[in-house]
Design a protein that fits this description.
globular; 7-stranded mixed β-sheet; 4-stranded antiparallel β-sheet; homodimer; Aspartate Aminotransferase, domain 1; disordered N terminus
């Protein structure tokens, strides 16, 4: 990749020296990285076998190398040869709870609280309707559903639908304002743990405690935090949570989402989607619905087995991973990336909209950039893959299991080159 | 496989002669079968490579031989190498409508009416809530949801949930009684096209016409008819329909379900699950929900891509298949199987609960048998795979694309042997 060409020789020399220092620093950081070995578990090349700097794992996680063989076995042997027998012999029936128990340690939950299946949107409906129902049962005057104002759109749409279906009212409140807004009329709050656009980390313990203080239920959307930082669902007493598995959990495109219900609330979980897989005796084929106990109560219909078992295999890369180490690396990566951007990109050309404060930062950096769409297209063409969010945001996701410090340095350097060429 | 041993020599000789005649007849029927060639498209052996008589395709369809290579490519190249680029470059984004258009001719729909995704249960909720909303919009006095009394349980549970969420009331009515029960208070009717247990085919044209005459909307569950017989959704003016794809459509375990909305109703389709994939401008990330036009409006969140594309590949076996020929073969198979059962099984030992009349028969035969659970276990052990539905039903599904008349004869013969041994 070329250096910028419009600088004076002195500038170029200073630039080269700064670049050399950052590359050396990246190499040292990578050498000292306790998670560096996990990178080998993933496919990170493109279709021509060339290295890609993949900073879009917050949209679609990379392929764990062990997944193709597992999927092939599921298709060819379990489906192809055993067919219907696999529901029992290959453990298909119990896969949603088994996968839930693999997700559990990543988000700080004990076994038996999480079930995998359906999409995030569908799980938002289950969780929000169930939360409103519990609040109403406590006190019929609880009619408000508070939703963080910068929510990922689908959560807002589904929240509005849940409110319409239950006679509740949605109020959009900035996440930091929720503790001051919860009150005796609040049924539930729905908050994105990390903002999909800015990467801002919302205060899960604080908001949860404030909601509980007011007698309301919490529903957390973990799509942009699970696998990137410790969540502590059990520890912080979160009531319900949902998340996808195709971002930091690397489950594959459209992999099943999941639903967490706090242990003490499981017997009260009253789903708007009471399908036969959540029945206490599914094969009794009774016309009376009797919900199963535990996490199974969150199931609906027949789960997507191919995707479910691909996800199960993908989750094996988390075995033995310490989420505190993941968080430490994530923050180090985003800090380092911001320093590299500061060095390679002229001041004012891009502006980070991700909080600088560690306590408020997820695992991505979002840079506001006037020509973000064209800049991202050019970055992708040069093997640096982030994504573009309208109207003007460059989004770079840092996935601690496979992003290296060298990736971060190279991405910033190429960004600097692209911007220099565009501005020349 | 042994013959029954308790017969006299004369009986055994008569039995052997009847058996020879039936086997010869099966061979002739197979030789004359225009669909016989499709059988080669499926894997029908067990894990040891041995022939299986697979009569459970009405529960989980067999694996089409071309699916494993397609799935491997999706996993290894589209996900593994292209990653996020595949949403556009590999056509992931448009797969739900593309797959819907492949299902369309099988159920008698024009392109643009069907979208694939989510489970059948989730699609029942979408369809029933939308139907009730349309009826209410026509006339707020329409408060009743009629559900066929022998419905597959999940449809009943979800119907009850839909009614609870919309303030409607469920009435369970035998399917044949629905035309006489619809009236000015009826909002919608939810009917299983083919009864999952008995295999009874319900009168889709007649019930739909009666509902329309009364001003009500129809929701048909096609799980046990799609791919087994012509459905004629457009022709009969069905309003909404749902179905799974893992039975006669061979999409794989838990493959995405689908939703049909009649063309004229698409602009009125008001989903309880308005996820971002059904937004008119999904990447606009607007906080205001504006539904997309057409089939896309039935989408919710990110679809399960691995399962979706396995299904897309599996549907290729339908290319050029005439549904009238499928129906003719299905009826011939079930007729022949019943004759073979009549020949091999002592009178009264089992009783068919599937209607003898062709117009009322789907593509399975359900035999009431006191010791059905143990009998089916023994059949499976001998390579004849049907299934058992509590308390006393042996279910045999006939999938015209890969079931042969020889399969039907052998299944009945082995059933006769098993019963003879048990009764010896």
């Amino acid at each position: 990749m070329s250096d910028a060409t419009e600088n004076t020789p002195e500038d170029a020399s200073a630039d080269a020296s700064a670049s050399t220092a950052l590359r050396e620093e990246a190499a040292k950081l990578d050498a000292a990285d306790g998670l560096a070995g996990r990178r080998e578990a993933f496919v990170l090349e493109d279709e021509k076998g060339e290295r890609v700097v993949y900073l879009d794992g917050n949209s679609l996680g990379a392929l764990p190398r062990s997944v193709p063989a597992r999927v092939a076995d599921v298709v060819e042997r379990e489906w192809g040869r055993l067919r219907i027998r696999s529901w029992t012999e290959s453990g298909w029936w119990t896969a949603p709870e088994r996968v839930g128990d693999l997700i559990a340690p990543i988000v700080g939950a004990a076994p038996g609280r999480i079930v995998a299946g359906d999409s995030t949107s569908v799980n938002v409906l289950k969780a929000v309707v169930a939360a409103i129902r519990m609040a109403r049962e406590d006190n019929p005057a609880r009619t408000d559903l508070l939703v963080d104002a910068t929510t990922f759109p689908t959560d807002g749409y589904i929240a509005a639908s849940a409110a319409r279906l239950t006679g509740a009212a949605v109020r959009a409140i900035p996440a930091e304002g929720i503790p001051g807004s919860v009150g005796p009329r609040t049924a539930a709050v729905l908050v994105n743990h990390v903002d999909y656009r800015t990467g801002e980390l919302h205060d899960l313990p604080g908001i949860t405690a404030a909601a509980h203080e007011a007698g309301a239920y919490t529903v957390w959307d973990l799509c942009h935090s699970a696998g990137a930082l410790p969540v502590g669902l059990d520890e912080h007493g979160v009531d319900l949570a949902v998340g996808c598995t195709y971002k930091y959990l690397n489950g594959g495109p459209g992999a099943p989402a999941y639903l967490y219900v706090r242990r003490g609330l499981q017997p009260r979980f009253d789903s708007p989607l009471p399908g036969w897989h959540s029945h206490a005796d599914p094969f009794g084929m009774s016309h009376e619905y009797e919900p199963a106990d535990g996490a199974q109560r969150g199931r609906v219909g027949t789960p997507d087995i191919l995707s479910m078992l691909a996800l199960e295999e993908a989750l094996k890369v988390w075995d033995g991973v310490d989420m505190a180490a993941v968080r430490a690396k994530s923050l180090a990566l985003t800090d380092f990336f911001l320093r590299c951007v500061g060095s390679y990109v002229p001041a004012g050309r891009v502006e980070s909209v991700t909080p600088a404060e560690h306590a408020r930062r997820g695992s991505q950096i979002a840079l506001r950039c006037a020509d973000a769409g064209e800049v991202m297209a050019e970055l992708v063409a040069r093997g640096v893959v982030g994504d573009f969010r309208r109207p003007d945001v460059l989004r770079f996701g840092f996935t601690p299991l496979y992003t290296s410090f060298a990736d971060a340095e190279l991405a910033a350097r190429v960004l600097g080159e692209v911007l220099a060429e565009r501005d020349a």
